Fold each of these.
Amino acid sequence: MEFGFYMPTRVKTGKNCVLKNSDDFKIGTKALIVTGKSSAVNGALDDVLNVLNKNNTEFVIFDKVMSNPTVECVYEGAEVAVEEEVDFVIAIGGGSPMDAAKAVALLAVSDLDRIQLFGSDIGHRALPMIHIPTTAGTGSEVTPYSILTNHEKQTKKSIASDCLFPQYAFLDAKYMQSISHDVMVNTAIDALSHSVEGMLSVKANIMSDIVAAEAIRLISSQFKNLKEGIADKEILLYAAMLGGVVISQTKTTAVHAMGYPLTYFKNIDHGRANGLLLGEFMKYTEKYEPLRVKKILSVMGIENTAEFKNIFIELLGKRDNFSVDELEMYSYISEDTGGVKNSIHRPNVDEILEIYTKSLID
Ligand code: NAP
Ligand code: ZN
């Protein structure tokens, strides 16, 4: 048996975990708080400011992060970090502010241009980070990835380095009380997708499988409640973090790679994009790796991939409109990505187009 496992983020969970662990916020003398327009208006920013004031720690707020953050946004945030001479970063929000915060923490101490930023040598240094997720989806609080909208490549691209693991993650479901139904559903599907893809990754190992299976079991237990708008947010927040632990070992697969163009060109939410494709990707993989797929289905307590696909059709409602030309273009964009190469059975460009077509047009 040969495998490695590395996840250095210290995770603390539970009601008021930010307020109860104020000493953990003493990792620097001046903080840059990175957040979005509404992600902080749920009590999370108030709690953080309480803690920083109690600790006599200075801070600056950068609240310009949009959904699917752009390269331009993170350079702007890094400029603020440098000008204000901050020495740590606090991210508050969903995956978008958390991913932006990671790139800001990196660019604040490394002079990287836009090509270097997406290259393989981004160095090993970033400002220390504390992450407070306010959605239950990406698990970015425990991953070494920052995913940014890259207009040059006309898609989303990820930066990966162990220095992007946050030092701390605080998970308190009280910040998710006013989250919309759509965000709740889409983010839960994203979290499920991470764990399912983790089990369909060439890098899956015995430990990542254990964590993935537990996350899949927990999220599946909430499908009915999600539809009815009464999902247990604490369970989903925990399961999403587990999904992050999974992809921090396995990375994501063709589903995420194929979902990025849907988000880039059609502005389809990240989790929804994955949910639209996941069912057909499972059917495709089943032809070559039936035992892997069976294992996932059995954790979910379902019989077959048709039933699996149906879960997402029911949760996501009416599909978005696509033309064949659009899907052909997305297939060429996805073909050579790390996600496609990371799939236990790697689809070629024709198979990618077939998965897109069966998911989005047929
Ligand atoms: P998001 O873009 O962070 O947030 C979605 C929406 O929810 C935004 O409108 C946000 O508002 C709002 N929102 C967030 N928290 C809220 C709360 N507690 N109450 C009310 N509204 C709230 O969505 P996400 O799905 O969490 O993150 C998606 C991003 O993460 C994508 O860019 C994706 O590529 C990335 N991702 C990263 C990883 C990783 O490992 N790094 C993994 C998967 C996905 P505001 O924008 O106004 O704040
Ligand atoms: Zn994702």
Amino acid sequence: MNDKQIKILAIETSCDETSAAVICEENQIHSDQPTANRQPPTIVSNIVSSQVDLHAKTSGVVPEVASRAHMEAIIPVVEKALLQENTKSEIRNTKQTQKYNVLNIKNSDSNIVSNFDIGASDLLQEVTHLAVTAGPGLIGSLLVGFNTAKSLAYALNIPIIPINHIEGHIYSALCGENPKSEYRNSKQHQNNKDRKTQEISNFVLRALNFPILALTVSGGHTSLTLMKDHGVYENIGATIDDAAGEAFDKVAKLLDLGYPGGPIVSRYAKKYREKISNSKFLISNQITNPESTSSQNQCHSVEENPADSAGRCGGDLNIKFPRPLLDRPDFNFSFSGLKTSVLYTVKKLTVNSQPLTAELKQQICYEFEEAVVDVLVTKTMRAAMQYEPKIIILAGGVSANLFLRKRLTEELKNHKTKEHDCIELLLPPLELCGDNAAMIGLAAYYHIIRDDISSWDKIKVDSNLKL
Ligand code: KG4
Ligand code: ZN
């Protein structure tokens, strides 16, 4: 292995985010040390240019539009990742706190325009390895990042590491937020809708204990993977039709809520969940204090419409969606039937061409989210009972879903393995749940330190790449 400190330039373009990141070993004195003794690397920059606004017009990703947008964004994004890394080093050296926008990047709807007066090409010379998503994903999107990385590896004469996108998502859960970081910006705890060119700062990396059970849930994938060591994966279950994130997006489209659907459906579901818990509070308050009024309650009067056992306000419809494949002992998922159930419900409710009220949409979103999360959590816990992992990782775009994070956290708190140890749950920071190049660089780092590297002329892109 190269005995220079490892500095990875990572690129991710598998779907609709153009992203580049720099991952570095810092203060690494002997970089040929055994894996266990090495200091974990640092994410020094992670730039994500999202095409969300572009695809919102069609309520979904149009592959050709996505690849054209990647073409426009890729070089400025790579430049920015390199230059931000450089700026951060300068900041570290001079102990100044500055805002990242010193780099003067302009961001329009789908592309960004670079306007640099320092050469990113100089900084490229310090890169020791390229890392790139090789699949799965949209082929036209993958090819843009893949060929950019391949060309850079050729020109710089350095190794390249092709990374499976799902492996990347799994490694995003290694990142814990560094509470001491000086470089955090206000966007860091906001939702995906705000991601355009997002800058991400320092994280601390957590150690891994194997075996790990990873639930990866995104717009293109829903899978349960048993990870026995770095790079050793066994697929124990996957969706047989739609991915969970895809179902969220389709339900949002059916309800005319916008794109991407996951965050919006989740917000609507949350409103209904709050309404239910308010009405539960009201009922218990009325039992203990019959004089109390319903002034806080947004629902119908409880006397007229008593709440059901779940505490639902009277007047709300009896909507229930199926939990697909939950009665099967395997670890596969199916979400296409669930989406069809939502479609039938919407058709029934709008039969007289009456538009759905916001309240009804909230209830549908709530029932849908409950069904998806129920299936994901139940199957994951069943797999945990069978495989007894030390760690469970939740990853992928849908791992930003706060209700899913909460349910899995609660289930695990109550769960004990046969040895009476609690299983640790690793959740990626919210800003690393969606597609980003930092996760690709991190996964690549663990390939590099076990000497699993390649050269530009040996790697292949595969839109159906398996882990
Ligand atoms: O991993 P990702 O960014 O791209 C793929 O690899 O597909 O995942 C995107 C998916 C979208 O379907 C989006 O609707 C979903 O993740 N998503 C969510 C949430 N945030 C993003 N789904 C449910 N709840 C969320 N909060
Ligand atoms: Zn993804």
